[in-house]
Design brief:
four-stranded mixed sheet; alpha+beta; elongated; 64% helix
Length: 317
């Protein structure tokens, strides 16, 4: 296979760190927007450094609290929302054996718990806060329709998400999106219902600057949740490439995962009954991938399956 796995891992880690850094920039900008709006509304000053710094600090603090709470309960919320239930070792011995063997190969001290979703579609995901507290979830359709090597390829992909701490990154990303939406909504209400007339403009020039600043921050407040969601989706796409590469390294048989992805691609009904936009990015394949549109690639939770297969088989040009 003409795939430099370690180079893929290195590149994707750099990209993911950069993308997550963008989230914190958005949170800081929203905090600066709050400080500026408050300063302009009540003192008439366009830029009050003290107010801006305090607001940025508050925005970051609120985001961190929100994220910590979300990361503490997020996995249980995800398992519940997708209808996942703990798999019986008696009924799914191969699922447990493969998960435990691949966990050893990945160097995990504690194998993830195995969960299933009663659904005929072909899909799987991993979640959890850390490798020590993690879950591998597969649909019953996946277990029934994949052969042993293909199922091991999918499980290896999910364990790769755990090994590479993707599960924590995606919980963090989801928490940051939630925090960004929360702060942006608060600022929007403050912008619409708060007073903007305090302090006097200090002349036509200052008045024009004030209007420009208000327009800039108003656009930022409106677009921040959308951009944050796009950044989360970009993180998800990069982590899929990384998990494919690491999973192939774990099994030392990339064709198993490539063949599994082919079957998943050919699934006539990829929709998982209880999947939603908040959990779609977690699955090995987007449950909503049948939806088409000019911006479908930009708003997709996953890279194209065809491209992933080509990389695994070393045929990508």
């Amino acid at each position: 296979m003409s795939l430099n796995i370690h180079e893929e891992i290195r590149k994707n880690r750099i990209k993911s760190v950069f993308i997550i850094g963008m989230f914190f920039i958005f949170v800081a900008l929203l905090g600066a927007a709050a400080g500026t709006i408050l300063s302009m509304s009540y003192t008439g000053e366009i830029f009050n450094i003290g107010s801006i710094l305090i607001s940025v600090g508050v925005a970051v603090f609120v985001s961190l609290i929100y994220i910590l709470i979300f990361m503490g309960i997020g996995s249980n919320m995800i398992l519940s929302s997708t209808g996942a239930k703990e798999a019986s070792r008696e009924h799914y011995p191969h699922l447990y054996h493969s998960t435990e063997a691949l966990s050893i190969a990945a160097g995990l001290r504690t194998p993830p718990k195995c969960y299933i979703i009663e659904d005929p579609s072909l899909n799987a995901y991993a979640t959890g806060f850390s490798p020590e507290k993690s879950y591998v979830v597969v649909t019953t359709g996946l277990i029934k329709k994949l052969n042993r090597q293909e199922l091991e390829g999918v499980i290896a992909h999910e364990i790769a998400h755990i090994k590479n701490y993707d599960i924590r990154i995606m919980l963090l990303a989801a928490g940051l999106v939630g925090a960004t939406v929360f702060i942006a909504d608060f600022l929007f209400r403050m912008f619409i219902f708060g007073g903007h007339g305090g302090g006097g403009g200090g002349g036509n020039k200052d008045g024009r600057i004030m209007i420009i600043v208000f327009i800039f921050y108003f656009i930022l407040i409106i677009t921040a949740p959308i951009v944050a969601q796009l950044i989360k989706l970009a993180i998800s796409r990069q982590r899929e490439y990384l998990a494919d590469a690491t999973g192939a390294e774990l099994t030392r048989y990339p064709e198993g995962l490539a063949s599994a992805l082919e079957k998943i691609k050919g699934d006539p009904d990829p929709m998982i009954e209880r999947a939603n936009n908040a959990t779609a990015h977690l699955f090995i394949s987007n449950p909503f991938r049948k939806k088409k549109g000019g911006l479908s690639k930009l708003f997709s939770t996953h890279p194209p399956i065809e491209e992933r297969i080509a990389i695994l088989r070393g045929t990508k040009k």
